[in-house]
Amino acid sequence: PTLQVVTRYYLATASNQLTTPLNVQLFMTNWDPYLALLKIKASGIMVDIGTISHYDKISDNIGQMAKIFYRIHVLEKTIRARKQIMALHQNKVSYGQSRHEQGAVDPLEVRLWTNNLKGERVKLKSQEAELEEKVGQLKMIMGYHPDYYLPLDTRDAANQILAGFNGQLVTFAEIQAGNMPLKILAKKEQLQSNMITGAYVALIPKP
Fold first, then answer.
1. Which letter does DSSP use for residue 206 in this model?
2. I need a surface site. Which of 68, 75, 114, 145 has the fewest CB within 10 A?
3. Cα dihedral sign for 28, 33, 38, 44?
4. Torsion-angle region of residue 8: left (phi > 0), alpha (psi -120 to 50) or beta?
5. Full pLDDT tens readout for the chain, 207 residues
6. Whose CA is closest to 71, among 159, 129, 134, 151?
7. Which 3 state secondary structure label does DSSP give 12?
8. In 143-179, where does DSSP find H-type helix?
């Protein structure tokens, strides 16, 4: 409740008055305990919304980290395979140039092999650049400095991410129960209902 304190100090009083020079009066303004309870409940709901939103952001960041980590795993495998393919193209070009000098291979065919090798080199550079970018994104989400060396072991990446999780065993009710945006929406509906009730209570005439 809201309290008001009124203090009066009398410089002079009538001789027949028994009051002291200092007079203090305490007043309680109109206070509705039910309305106060609704305000406390609303504050609690807002705290819940903030907490769930924080959890939702953490969950979103973890999901992004998992996607980036798996993409890094795919890129590393692709780069290893690309380097093996490049080695084969390089051997083919070296063989063609050697045979071309002997007049046994058409120069157009050697040029085609050389162009294929150049194309593989361009693809490799593009994938290596993407790999570096993804590692940088992962470090940023984790809060590391861009220059920090982040050792990653992406072997069996899917199992590292899912940890044996089997989506076929999850029910729809469990999905709904763990859905953060749905929880936030439900809390906002509670807050709105609470505010409407408070508005009605405020309109009730006070005695």
1. P
2. 145
3. positive
4. beta
5. 566 777 777 666 656 555 567 777 776 666 677 787 888 899 999 999 999 999 999 999 999 999 999 999 999 999 999 999 999 999 988 888 887 777 777 888 888 888 999 999 999 999 999 999 999 999 999 999 999 999 999 988 888 888 877 777 888 888 888 888 999 999 999 999 988 988 888 777 765
6. 134
7. coil
8. 157-162, 172-177
Q: Which two tokens stand for residue 86?
A: 């490049």
Tokens 């194309």 sit at which residue? 119
CA 124 to the chain's CA centroid: 31
Cα separation, 140 vs 129, in Å, equals: 17
Point out which residues pair with 28 in neighbouring strands: 3
- For the record, the structure tokens of 34 come out as 């039910």
Coil vs helix vs strand at 16? coil
Q: Which residue, among 172, 176, 152, 180, has the nearest Cα to 68 in the 3D structure?
A: 152
